[in-house]
């Protein structure tokens, strides 16, 4: 009788642990801090112009950014009046950008990348202060391989903000459940 009860509890326990559902408009969902937004990839030349379109599964790449305004990324010059008219309100400093790219499943994550666990990898591009960091680019790229085998690459650029919060956001990525 006790054995039967244990079996029933074990069977019931398996039913109680339904797979978690991750909701989102894109392929990945993130725990974004207050003020952060997800927008379609938007770099046009040196001008970062966020699209007014919503993020959806038809968009292949997205931007996670710490501000909800246009980000002017051109080094060494301020925007012209014409550019300002197109952009509206913009920022030139105190921002973080995470560019998230869906990459081909056949692409191999470089073997030098550090395995962070749970499908995440961190690849060092160059030493601190070297050329790969021009314009605020972080000297590491991140990769995520989902349980389904889908692959993503993350590239961070900051100006006046720490890379730490960007890394936390990347590591919060979960693949969205499709039905």
UniProtKB/TrEMBL annotation:
This is Lipoprotein. It comes from the Bacteria. Keywords: Signal. Residues 1-18 form the signal peptide.
């Amino acid at each position: 009788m006790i054995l039967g009860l244990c079996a029933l509890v074990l069977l019931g326990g398996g039913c109680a642990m339904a797979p978690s559902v991750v909701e989102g408009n894109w392929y990945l969902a993130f725990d974004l801090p207050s003020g952060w937004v997800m927008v379609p990839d938007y770099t046009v030349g040196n001008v970062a112009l966020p699209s007014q379109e919503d993020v959806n599964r038809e968009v292949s790449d997205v931007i996670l950014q710490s501000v909800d305004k246009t980000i002017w990324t051109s080094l060494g010059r301020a925007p012209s009046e014409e550019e300002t008219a197109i952009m509206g309100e913009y920022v030139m400093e105190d921002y973080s950008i995470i560019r998230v790219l869906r990459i081909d499943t056949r692409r191999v994550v470089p073997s030098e990348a550090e395995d962070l666990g749970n499908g995440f990898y961190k690849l060092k591009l160059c030493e601190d202060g070297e050329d790969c960091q021009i314009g605020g680019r972080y000297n590491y790229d991140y990769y995520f391989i989902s349980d389904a085998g889908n692959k993503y690459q993350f590239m961070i650029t900051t100006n006046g903000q720490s890379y730490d919060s960007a890394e936390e956001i990347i590591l919060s990525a979960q693949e969205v459940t499709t039905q």
